[in-house]
Amino acid sequence: MSAFDSGTTTILGCTSDHFVLDMCAAPGSKTFQLLEMIYESIEPGSLPSGMVVANDVDVQRCNLLIHQTKRMCTANLIVTNHAAQHFPSCHLNKNYANALESGVAMEPSVRQLPFDRVLCDVPCSGDANHYFLYRSVGMGNGIHGLQVQIAMRGISLLKVGGRIVYSTCSMNPVENEAVVAEILRRCGGSVELLDVSSELPQLVRRPGLKKWKVRDKGIWLASYKDVSKFRRAGITPKLGERHDNGGDENSEKKDLEALTDVLDEEISSLPLERCMRIVPHDQNTGAFFIAVLHKLSPLPEDNYPIYLCVAIQKKPTTKDVKEDINGVEFNSDVTEEQLPEAVSSADLLAASDADLLGNELEESALNTDPSKMCDEIEPKEIQDPVDKETGLEKVGGKRKLQSQGKWKGVDPVVFFSNNDIVDSIMTFYGIDESFPFSGHLVTRNSDTNHVKRIYYVSKSVKDILELNLKGGQQLKITSIGLKMFERQSSKEGSLSPCAFRISSEGLPLLLPHITKQIVHASTVDFKHLLEYKTIKFADFVDAEFGEKASKLMLGCCVVVLRKDPPKVDASTIAIGCWRGRTNVSVMVTAIDCREMLERLSRMGTKMALNCQKPNPLMLILKNSNK
Ligand SMILES: C[S@@+](CC[C@H](N)C(=O)[O-])C[C@H]1O[C@@H](n2cnc3c(N)ncnc32)[C@H](O)[C@@H]1O
Prior knowledge:
The protein has 18 helices and 24 strands. Strands 1, 2, 3, 4, 5, 6, 7, 10, 11 and 17 form a 10-stranded mixed β-sheet that branches. The protein has a 5-stranded antiparallel β-sheet with strand order 14-15-16-18-19, with no helix packed on it. Strands 20-22-23-24-21 form a 5-stranded mixed β-sheet.
């Protein structure tokens, strides 16, 4: 990973115990780097205690991300599908306490999403990487509001003391320094813009701008004074600052000039030069803007921007406002007349969620002034979890927590607790007791008899999942953990004592703990298996290997490329196979077989082992059987 392509993630300073939120994560190149960072310093034989939540609003791009991160074989990742500006905090509210009293819930180890690091790689006009021109200035202006909202949501989800990186691949200051300036203004002294000039010294960077012009309707505006009278309804200083001048034109002009001077002064006092501009011609990279912020204290209540920058959608009813998704009643004195002209249901959701954030937001958030609204890119799929989606049911007019809720079109995430199946798996593969299974297995099907896949989650992911279940399933989870076992569906599969085979993603983690159904093949037999896919016991070059394979039980087995001494470590190569009635067949995709074969042939086995793609789980395996 070079300093150039990983500057954004490196500067975030993740360690293996960090809970990290990647707010706009697809297609996942930075998520991959974040995962590499949390795996980097872990002790051999263990999983990191931290984890990554990778989120994107676009469900198809989420799938790309899942594909991209698959080769990490990680149990420490949750992929979610939310509009980042409304990302839920999963804070447990008073209903949870009620549920506890009635014995419904158990105490989870975390009580709200606790992010140590947030990456806010926002959608941007993306102009700079192609032409280094402000190709889409209009888009930059339009997207500024959403960028501020996403960054502010990230800051509100960040622990005090945590670090957030705001980045774009645009060079338009409206999407960069203007966003950072607005964040600093709204956060008051709660957030500082860090000077990271001594970090990553090999990364050539230029300082952030202190002055810029905004292009509007073909005119460059250097200051608010330049805005024509006719445009002032559409452009307001400070994203919608209003001042009542009694309709006097002269005093309006004076007011505006005074306000503009204050604004200019305010901006020039901000240390925006600490932002980093990385330009293509300095070191032959793409163009990036990066700002690193540090949260010093909880955000001031009255400066929550999410609620000031809303898209006009519909006027909410009093009922909408009064009831939040977890049944907490808030702002109960609000009347129909006091409601803002227009608030989106998604904003109501965010407001509700913010209520769950505790003291960080109060009802002032609901006093939204429509004049403060700004443009927003509509997420492709926003689900409104108010109501049936959350799995909350009404009992006697009050909402009550339910242990399992559901997002429309998304399979639930359920802890797998069928002990008979777990025991049969452990016995069949001889998995040693030291491997932590209990509470770490999840499925996407509440009917455990018909489960097709079983996923393994790390302790950190397990904690978040417990919190999510207790809190009414606010997280819309697209993917979670590591696919470890798959039900064998073939006819022959039903004859095996164990209905589940080990998936290739789960194999690296399980390998050091498997004591049965495992055989070690010579290089020539291993290559033959990859080449011919199925080999009869009698046809193996090494007759002893064929015999050992024939003595395995019918069903899934693991074939390891033999080496001397035969210990499992970072260089071990193994594949999942099927021990049939008369033969052994590989259960690896044709592409993977070809790749592995090419590597083995091109470099010789020893070289191939050294040249594998970096896989952090291989670090875990290192020395794990010592
Ligand atoms: C600059 S790309 C992110 C690139 C990514 N960080 C990576 O390194 O691969 C911006 C992403 O933001 C997503 N996006 C756009 N609007 C969003 C929103 N409101 N909430 C969350 N994600 C959003 C887009 O779908 C896109 O995948």
